[in-house]
Amino acid sequence: MSTTSPQLPASVRTFAQQLSSTRRGARLARLLTHEQLRAWETSPDVTDRAEQIVAELAANAALHGRVQGRDFRLALTQDPATGTLRIAVTDTRGDRLPSPVTDFATSPHDESGRGLLIVAALADRWGTEPYPPGGKTVWAEVSDLAASTAPPHAAEHVAGTPGNVAE
After folding, report:
1. What are the structural domains of the chain?
2. pTM
């Protein structure tokens, strides 16, 4: 008689960190993401995409979501069962919502204005949600194509969220 040992379901992994709303804080967010995903043994595809997404969202939080003396928050949640990594950056400026991504008026010579277009291109899904009492969270999800059956880069608007917006 052959017996199999029971398999425990993979547990969801989380990481969260408050960071200063500065360029240095934004850079540290990207470095912390790299190290955390390396520790979780995340695939290189997901890690590369996540690092760029975090860089854009953290830069937006430091530039557009900054309130003097208030930090922004980086949160990573990895669900090995679904192969999904959720990135969430929360800032304290709920009154400054991003502009729609459909605004392609940014000149090719401008040094900024493309951050959330990059997020939209790299994420499978993304959007925004209020963070009471006065902030907002911009989130993005990246699927590990080797671990899931999701189609590659099926960027979609999530119903019920103000998603697909740009700062």
Report:
1. 18-166 (3.30.565.10)
2. 0.76
